[in-house]
Amino acid sequence: MVQLLQDSQRHGNPQVDDTPFLSDPDRHADSFPRPPYRSKCSHRRISQRDRYIFFDLGARNAILGLHKQRLSPTEKGSLFEQWVLLQCLYFMHAEKREWKFSSYRTDGGAEVDIILDTGKKILALECKLGKNVSESQMTGLRSFQTIAEKPVSKYVLYLGETRQKFSGGELAIPYKEFLLDILPAI
After folding, report:
1. Backbone angles phi, psi at 85, to 5 degrees
2. For a tag on the chain, would you pick the N or C end, based on fewer CB atoms within 10 A?
3. pLDDT at 116
4. Does domain 2-185 have CATH number 3.40.1350?
5. Is the separation of the CB atoms in 126 and 103 below 8 Å?
6. How distant, in Å, are the alpha carbons of 23, 48, 177 from that of 56?
7. Does the pTM of the predicted model rise above 0.70?
């Protein structure tokens, strides 16, 4: 696994993608795949690659050598996204929720970090490591809604302190409020 992470970093991608070695959960309990969302009705080209998530962010950073340097804003954002996903997974496990999770990315660049399918509806979550959110950051959530087969609740989880409602019905909400109030109420 260490070699795979180091090879991945050399190629500019600290999140290991398309690695058959890591796809066997019995062999690697410290990582798991986040599959792409698959729509049955869309003709839009959706990227069909699993992204691997590691349970221990510190070990991941140490293996990649990131503990020796300051993290870039992009890397901090990636870690925030991964941390939020882990919190959602821990909640699902603790509450015995049979939700499915995935991610969404089109070949055109639209993406949503976390898709949680609760059975009755879908939560589309975009994670932003910042205190401000703008209308222009809603394109991935809006793209996803056009191909979803169930009602979609669209959230941007961020470090700000207030809720913001956007023209397409998206809600930017402090991540703590989402994790402590919204997620348990679903």
Report:
1. -60, -45
2. C
3. 95
4. yes
5. no
6. 17, 25, 24
7. yes
